[in-house]
């Protein structure tokens, strides 16, 4: 497992990546959105670059499969990764767009927005969210967390999320998924049920949700989102499957 390291470990490892940086192979932020070419032998291909402010968790991640965190994702990435097709071949990562509204009393209201991108072979975006975006929990705060994900959580993530929700009773999580990940598998179905039982609202993205995600999380250059063919029908397909699982 390649999750975020504890701060103490990260501090130690921060000194390590000199060779990586000096070698000039770290990708710059501007390149993050480009689709990684496959099989070119570059172990860092597709890896996250550190943001300018050198966020700890990014520096500490030196493995080939990393979590990318950003403000708005490239439009082509959205159009490919969020497409709600039934057979999602080639989409071997999860894109997770998030909104966090955490409130303490009437005066303190904190908003966070952004996206995470994983590679399925490494840490998953769902878990990374609670390591990188919302690592702390204050029981005196109320958290409203909304995710728009390209595909629904795997069984392991569903179990971890259910556990997190049980441990954080003032946190409300709503997950809108473009596609259902391996929904035929019994363990996936059990995971989704456990997640719902832990209080997570699970939804399939409708055309209007794709449009909202496009407006809110994508470098859309002021273009209006136009749904692909079958967007509505595919939504109905997945919606029916999800309703069947959660009934
Ligand atoms: Zn997962």
Keywords:
247 residues, alpha/beta, Cytidine Deaminase, domain 2, 6-stranded mixed sheet, two-stranded parallel ribbon, globular, disordered N terminus, binds zinc ion
Report what the structure shows.
The chain is of the alpha/beta class and 247 residues long. It has one domain (20-246): Cytidine Deaminase, domain 2. Helices cover 35% and strands 20% of the residues. The protein is built from 9 helices and 8 strands. The chain has helices at 7-14, 18-22, 56-60, 75-81, 125-133, 155-167, 186-197, 207-217, 231-246; strands at residues 68-70, 73-74, 95-104, 108-117, 142-151, 171-179, 201-204, 218-219. The strands form 2 sheets. A 6-stranded mixed sheet has the order 1-4-3-5-6-7, sandwiched between helices. A two-stranded parallel ribbon has the order 2-8. Helix 6 links the parallel strand 5 and strand 6. The two termini are 33 Å apart. The model is unreliable at 1-64 (pLDDT under 50). The structure holds zinc ion (ZN). Zinc ion (ZN) is lined by residues 124, 126, 153-154, 156-157. Residues 124, 126, 153-154, 156-157 line the site of zinc ion. InterPro entries: APOBEC_Cyt_Deaminase, CMP_dCMP_dom, Cytidine_deaminase-like. One of its GO terms (molecular function) is RNA binding. Residues 90-195 form the CMP/dCMP-type deaminase domain.
Which secondary structure elements does this structure contain, and how are they paired or packed?
Elements: H1 7-14, H2 18-22, H3 56-60, E1 68-70, E2 73-74, H4 75-81, E3 95-104, E4 108-117, H5 125-133, E5 142-151, H6 155-167, E6 171-179, H7 186-197, E7 201-204, H8 207-217, E8 218-219, H9 231-246
Parallel strand pairs: 2-8, 5-6, 6-7
Antiparallel strand pairs: 1-4, 3-4, 3-5
Helix pairs in contact: 6-7
The chain binds zinc ion.
């Amino acid at each position: 497992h390649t999750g975020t390291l504890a701060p103490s470990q990260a501090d130690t490892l921060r000194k390590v990546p000199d060779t990586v940086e000096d070698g000039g192979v770290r990708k710059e932020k501007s390149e993050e959105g480009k689709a990684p070419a496959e099989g070119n032998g570059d172990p860092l291909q597709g890896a996250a670059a550190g943001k300018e402010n050198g966020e700890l968790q990014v520096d500490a991640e030196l493995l080939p499969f990393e979590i990318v965190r950003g403000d708005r994702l490239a439009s082509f990435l959205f159009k490919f990764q969020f497409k709600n097709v039934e057979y999602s071949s080639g989409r071997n990562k999860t894109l997770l767009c998030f909104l966090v509204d955490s409130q303490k009393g009437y005066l303190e209201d904190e908003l966070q927005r952004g996206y995470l991108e994983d590679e399925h072979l490494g840490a998953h975006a769902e878990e990374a969210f609670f390591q990188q975006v919302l690592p702390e929990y204050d029981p005196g705060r109320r958290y409203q967390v909304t995710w728009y994900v390209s595909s629904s959580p795997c069984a392991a993530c569903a179990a971890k999320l259910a556990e997190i929700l049980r441990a954080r009773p003032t946190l409300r999580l709503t997950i809108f998924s473009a596609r259902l990940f391996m929904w035929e598998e019994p363990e996936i179905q059990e995971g989704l049920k456990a997640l719902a039982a832990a209080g997570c609202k699970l939804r399939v993205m409708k055309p209007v949700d794709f449009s909202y995600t496009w407006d809110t999380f994508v470098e859309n250059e002021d273009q209006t989102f136009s749904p692909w063919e079958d967007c509505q029908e595919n939504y109905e397909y997945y919606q029916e499957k999800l309703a069947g699982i959660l009934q």
